[in-house]
Write a structure and sequence with these properties.
Strand content: 5-15%
Helix content: 40-55%
Largest sheet: 8 strands, mixed
Structural class: alpha/beta
Strand order of the largest sheet: 3-2-1-4-5-6-7-8
Number of strands: 10
Distance between the termini: 59 Å
Order of helices and strands: HEHEHHEEHEHEEHEHHHHEHE
Length: 357
Amino acid sequence: MNYKQILLELIKEKKVRVGVIGLGYVGLPLAGFFAKKKFNVFGFDIDKKKVSQLKKKHSYIKHIKNKLLKSIDNFFYPTSNFKLISKVDIIIICLPTPLDRNKNPDLSFIKNTLNVIKKYLRKGQIIILESSTYPGSTREIVVPVIKKKKFVIGKEFFLGYSPEREDPSNKRYNIRNIPKLLSGYSKTCKLITKNIYSKVVNKVVMMSSIEAAEFTKIFENTFRSVNIALVNELKLLSTKTNLNINEIINAANTKPFGFKAFQPGPGVGGHCIPIDPFYLNWVAKKNKMKINFIGLAGKINEMMPEWIISESLKFKKIKKALILGVAYKKNVDDMRESPALDFIKILRKKKIKVDYH
C-alpha cells in the first residue's frame, strides 16, 4: 500500500483528519485555522474543563473569540478521548516544554503523551511536533516510539517538525502570514509536512533537517533574550548617568542598517524567551562547551524586578502597592514566567501589602 500517495491525496482533497494535541495558546489557534479551512479537526486535551468549555463554544483564551469557535462548529471536535488518535491522519503535538528546577529541559509532557497515544498509532499517519525543544530531541524521543511499533518511517509512517511561531494578541501577524519553518525525517516526510501546512499558511520555509529547524526556533528566542538583556543593562547605566535610554534607542534606530531596536522592561515572560535559550545552554553542556551569553542574559533579565523596585522605593516608605497588569505582555491572559509575579514576591518580602489588577 502506498501510504505516501494516500496521505497526499487526502490532504489535496481536504479529506484528511487532523488531530491537534494540546489546546493551549499554540494548539487552539492552530486547530482553529485548520477548521476554518474546512479540515475536520480533533482537538485533544487532558483538561476536561477546557474540552467542556470548547464544546459549549466558550473560549478560555482572550484572543480566541467565542465567535470563532461557533464558526468552526461543524469541523472542530474537542475531546479528552485519546483513543480517537486512531481515527486521525495527521497528529500535531503542541505541548509545553518547560525547564526543571535546574534549568534543564523538561520534556515530560511530550513523553507522557507519546506513551498514551502509542497504542493507537497506525500505518499511514504522520506525527508533527510543534513544541520548542533542543536540537535532536524529536529524533531521540519520537523516533523510538514509532520504531517500536515496527513502522518503517518514510514509507509506512511519517514524522515532521515545524516549530510554532505564535505571538498571542499580535494583530498584524498570525499563523497564516508568519512563514512556517518545517522539516522531516525523510524527503517524503518533508513533502507531506509541506503539503499539510501549505493549506493554511502563506509561506513555508523548508529546512535541511529536523535538528536545524529545532535549533532555529531556539536561536530566534535566544536572540531576543540576549538583546533584551543588553538594553536592560544599558538602562541601568543610562539611569546612573542621567540619560534617557528611550531617546538613545530611538536615535540609534534612525540608522538604516546594522541596528534593531529592543526596549528595556521589567524582565521577560511567557513560554519562550525565559525558557528556550536554556535548552541551547543544556546542549552546550552536553557537548562539553560553555556558552556565556545565555546565562548572563538570563541573570540580567531576572534581576530587573528587584532593580525597578529598588529604584522606585528610593527614599520612600510605603505600606501598600498596586500591580497594574499581571500577564507577561499586554492584551494576553498568560501569566507564565511573568515579571509581575516577581514584583509581588519582592514586595511581600518587604512587608508591603500587594493588590493587583
